[in-house]
Design brief:
It contains 11 helices and 21 strands. By secondary structure, it is α/β, with parallel strands linked by helices. Helix 4 crosses helix 10 and helix 7 runs parallel beside helix 8. The two termini are 38 Å apart.
């Protein structure tokens, strides 16, 4: 019996036919006319969210708390990080953050509710979740490439194809199959850093490491620093970092980079370090023509350059150098099952995410912190909202 219904008894006349009952109303319904009832409109719970309402303009709004579908979990968000793609996209230039949109895809929290079809998860558990919503039954997912799944959606993204609300809110619903439980030793703030570590792990997994002794990482932002830590954990002997910020290069050195450069003839300096050959592998974590050309010029013949940054939609490519030196260019898209390994690395201290967190402000200060990041505040690297 539905708990919202009042027990009802059939009352019969002496002829065995039902008699009309007056004054009997089912809870959760309202009379609409003779013999008719309609569901009572229940007040939908509200939540606070940080909404991008126009290019570079945010405001805190009250919105309906999302309803939990049968295959979903409702998560009470505790921590949510600002990604570089959020900062680059807030002005509308990338076409991936078209206002209005609640952004945010790097987050963690507590399960508030589970859908009727969900098993293995329960309210009260501490979790994080993948940034990509995908269909586990499609061709790419079955081939182990769910990051390339058709019709996939990224949390907190608004583009021509779709609008998917993200984690800069008090609550969020996601499919249960993208949810991961947190180890007890991992805080909510650390868990909000799992996504960039998983991105780095995916890029490294696509890159041949068997004969690699040296690696060049171009761009010491969040992803580049994460790649440096993963390469160190994988045992790469010589890690070279390149960035225009001396402060970030100082951080790269603490993360595991053996050599750090911000200017000069980079290919020549890399060759000097690598006995005149060039780096065995390179990771380009910026995504512009200049840095891609530098990566190609700095690796040895037969090397692999893994492209992770995608700031520019199109770049110039030194085609003849790639062909005649037999360089392999490998694109790396998002994440594909690396969350458990990322959580394990954080839990045992093999990667350090705490030192990458610059600030943990409340959500209602969102505009100010986005402005600082957008304007290139050198003091900031990762900002995580505590919600």
């Amino acid at each position: 019996m539905n708990p919202d219904e009042t027990p009802m008894r059939k009352v019969f006349s002496h002829r065995g036919m039902p008699r009309k009952l007056s004054g009997l109303v089912v809870k959760g319904s309202t009379p609409t006319g003779r013999g008719k009832f309609s569901p009572l409109k229940r007040k939908i719970k509200q939540m606070k969210a940080l909404n991008l309402i126009a290019p570079k303009k945010f405001e805190i709004i009250d919105v309906d708390r999302p309803a939990c579908k049968p295959d979903e979990v409702l998560i009470r968000v505790k921590a949510a990080g600002i990604c570089g793609s959020d900062v680059h996209g807030m002005d509308g230039s990338t076409g991936r953050r078209i206002a209005p949109i609640i952004m945010g895809h790097e987050a963690s929290g507590i399960i508030e509710e589970t859908g009727g079809e969900v098993s293995g998860l329960k309210p009260g558990e501490r979790v994080t979740f993948d940034s990509t919503i995908y269909n586990p039954a499609d061709w790419f997912s079955k081939k182990g490439m769910y990051n390339l799944s058709d019709n996939r959606r990224v949390l907190g993204v608004s583009c021509d194809e779709y609008r998917q609300a993200g984690a800069f809110a008090e609550y969020l619903t996601v499919p249960a199959h993208i949810v991961y439980k947190l180890p007890d030793v991992v805080s909510f703030e650390e868990a909000a850093m799992v996504e960039p570590i998983a991105v780095a792990l995916h890029a490294v997994s696509l890159t041949p490491l068997a004969d690699a002794e040296s690696a060049l990482v171009i761009g010491a932002g969040m992803i580049g620093l994460s790649i440096i830590q993963v390469l160190r954990a994988k045992g790469i002997k010589t890690i070279i970092a390149l960035d225009t910020s001396p402060k970030r290069l100082e951080l790269a050195a603490t993360m595991g980079a053996h050599y750090c450069f911000d200017k000069g003839d980079i290919p020549a300096q890399v060759q000097q370090i690598t006995n005149g050959r060039g780096a065995d592998i390179a990771f380009e974590a910026v995504g512009i023509s200049t840095t891609i050309k530098t990566a190609v010029a700095s690796v040895r013949k037969g090397a692999t350059v893994t492209l992770v940054g995608n700031l520019a939609r199109e770049v110039e490519l030194p085609l003849q150098a790639v062909v005649t030196r037999q360089i392999r260019l490998q694109g790396s898209c998002a994440i594909c099952g690396e969350y458990p390994e990322a959580l394990e690395l954080i839990a045992r201290g093999a990667v350090n995410v705490k030192s990458l967190i610059s600030a943990t402000p409340p959500l209602d200060e969102g505009q100010a912190w986005f402005d600082r990041l957008y304007n290139g505040d050198p003091e900031l690297l990762k900002v995580i909202f505590k919600i």
